[in-house]
């Protein structure tokens, strides 16, 4: 399998000019812990994670740090001040972007996530954001295929089925932006959190209409209800 076979294509993104407050609201609303930072041309210029938002003056977690010998070379307290007080994503995001191509193998992605200690990696096509692969996507691929030590190959038809389904779902208000689909041996596996069973049914119907689909397996979770419902 390759990145394009498991990546989430509809990615929640922010821009360098997005406010930190709006980014935090976006994370909560979509139940995500990170997002690529994309410029006006669609290029990934950074990554914002929940870790970048932990030390903030708004919640009183911006405690000053004891100076060390490293401050002789770079004023770490000044860096911490920027992280905790800045209003725009551009000032708090990580600029060291690790990315992969759509054809990168899952083995290589798994090694990259482990070696860099990261949870997700943007997938680029023609230097622009095409999707994102997270640790959850890798686990979904394993669970969908029943793989053991080796990663199974994906036939052209499996890839075509996934591409057709993603195209059919694009722009549908009931579709699941940010969730995922894995196709293995003609079987469509649905993953993620859906707002309603009707949405799951609609995706199943869309998948069953695609030539070559042998079945649809539902691994989705119900959308969590607010307290009191």
Give the CATH architecture of the largest domain: Roll
- Please tell me how large the radius of gyration is: 20 Å
User: What is the oligomer described by this structure?
Assistant: single chain
In the CATH hierarchy, the third-tier topology of the largest domain is known as: CBS-domain
**CATH superfamily heading of the largest domain:** CBS-domain
Low-confidence stretches: none
H and E order: HHEEHEHEEHHEEEHEE
Outline the biggest β-sheet.
3 strands, mixed
Task: Tell me the strand order in the biggest sheet.
Answer: 3-4-5
Overall CATH class of the largest domain: Alpha Beta
- Structural class label: alpha/beta
Query: What spatial form do the alpha-carbon principal axes imply?
Result: globular
Strand % is: 15-25%
Average pLDDT confidence is 82
Helical content (DSSP H or I, runs of 4+): 25-40%
* Structural domains: how many: 2
What is the rounded distance between the termini?
Answer: 41 Å
In short:
The protein is α/β, with parallel strands linked by helices and 229 residues long.
Task: Write a structural description.
The chain is of the alpha/beta class and 229 residues long. It has 2 domains: 1-149, CBS-domain (Roll), CATH 3.10.580; 155-229, 2-Layer Sandwich (Histidine-containing Protein, Chain: A), CATH 3.30.1340.30. The chain has helices spanning 3-6, 20-30, 76-85, 106-116, 135-145, 156-169, 197-208; strands at 34-38, 44-49, 100-101, 120-125, 128-134, 180-184, 187-191, 193-194, 215-218, 221-222. The protein has a 3-stranded mixed beta sheet with strand order 3-4-5. Strand 1 (34-38) and strand 2 form a beta hairpin. The longest helix has 14 residues, at 156-169. The model has no long low-confidence stretch (mean pLDDT 82).
């Amino acid at each position: 399998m390759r990145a394009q076979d498991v990546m989430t294509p509809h990615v929640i993104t922010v821009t360098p000019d997005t406010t930190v407050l709006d980014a935090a609201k976006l994370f909560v609303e979509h139940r995500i812990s990170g997002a690529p930072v994309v410029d006006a041309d669609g290029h990934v210029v950074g990554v914002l994670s929940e870790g970048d938002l932990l030390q903030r003056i708004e919640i009183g977690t911006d405690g000053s740090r004891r100076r060390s010998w490293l401050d002789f070379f770079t004023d770490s307290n000044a860096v911490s001040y920027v992280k905790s007080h800045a209003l725009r994503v551009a000032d708090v995001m990580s600029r060291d972007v690790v990315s992969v191509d759509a054809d990168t193998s899952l083995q290589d992605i798994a090694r990259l996530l482990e070696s860099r200690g990261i949870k997700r990696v943007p997938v680029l096509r023609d230097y622009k954001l095409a999707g994102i692969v997270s640790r959850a996507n890798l686990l979904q691929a394993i669970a969908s295929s029943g793989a053991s030590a080796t990663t199974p190959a994906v036939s052209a038809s499996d890839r075509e089925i996934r591409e057709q389904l993603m195209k059919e779902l694009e722009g549908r208000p009931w579709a699941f932006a940010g969730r995922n689909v894995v196709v293995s041996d003609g079987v469509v596996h649905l993953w993620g959190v859906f707002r309603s069973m009707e949405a799951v049914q609609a995706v199943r119907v869309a998948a069953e209409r695609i030539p070559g689909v042998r079945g649809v397996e539902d691994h989705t979770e119900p959308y969590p209800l607010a307290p009191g419902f």
